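Section 5: illustrative case.
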């Protein structure tokens, strides 16, 4: 079974991207790179990899949609989403695929993602507000997962719909998960597949609670507030506000 991987790029570290390409350079994987950088990096990348360039920067949501649509049109039934700096491996991918296949026989699955090993705090991210609800010894049900490492099926993508392009960057992954849950589907996080990842650009502590901080984009808290204000369907706001199981 061939599985797709969509990697979103913006001024990427080419050494890291070429390492990722080498890791997944087998017949079992189909890699597509969607680059929002002003200048193309295709000539500096190794191997025969699918590369799509949008110098005008169409945003993360639309880049993800284009990559997923391209893969699913090739009769690929599963696809991962990755950020350009994620430390993703075939072992992590295979574990998540196995868990998705197992859980879909008893649950309506929208997506599953790995636990996140935060490279800032150097520990597994447990979440400040969201702890999730244990589903089994190696899986928990959560309200949302980040896009990087997210595994979704062709069926789930068609049922839930595309990522919300108007959000551009912040809130894209959360909104899609909330929308999936409003349609009766579930989102899961693996406790045995763990992916090193940098969330945000730094960390800030307020009243003893540590939050991620993005110095290169709008603060996600402001973006979420605007997003929730703009939503016409109150169900998203209720889901988003109920942050704990």
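Designed sequence:
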């Amino acid at each position: 079974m061939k599985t797709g991987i969509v990697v979103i790029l913006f001024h990427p570290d080419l050494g890291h991207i070429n390492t990722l390409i080498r890791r997944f350079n087998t017949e079992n994987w189909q890699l597509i790179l969607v680059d929002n950088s002003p200048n193309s990096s295709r000539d500096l990348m190794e191997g025969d990899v699918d590369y799509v360039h949008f110098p005008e920067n169409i945003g993360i949501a639309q880049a993800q949609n284009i990559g997923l649509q391209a893969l699913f049109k090739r009769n690929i039934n599963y696809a991962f989403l990755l950020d350009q700096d994620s430390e993703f491996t075939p072992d992590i991918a295979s574990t998540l695929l196995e868990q998705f296949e197992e859980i879909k026989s008893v649950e309506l699955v929208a997506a599953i993602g790995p636990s996140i090993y935060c490279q800032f705090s150097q520990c597994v991210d447990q979440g400040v507000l969201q702890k999730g609800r244990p589903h089994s010894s190696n899986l928990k049900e959560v309200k949302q997962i980040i896009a990087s490492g997210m595994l979704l099926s062709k069926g789930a993508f068609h049922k839930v719909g595309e990522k919300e392009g108007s959000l551009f960057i912040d809130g894209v992954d959360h909104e899609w998960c909330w929308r999936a849950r409003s349609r009766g589907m579930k989102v899961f996080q693996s406790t045995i597949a763990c992916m090193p990842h940098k969330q945000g650009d730094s960390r800030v502590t307020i009243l003893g609670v540590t939050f991620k901080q993005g110095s290169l984009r709008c603060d996600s808290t402001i973006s979420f507030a605007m997003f929730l204000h703009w939503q016409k369907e109150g169900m998203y706001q209720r889901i988003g506000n109920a942050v704990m199981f």
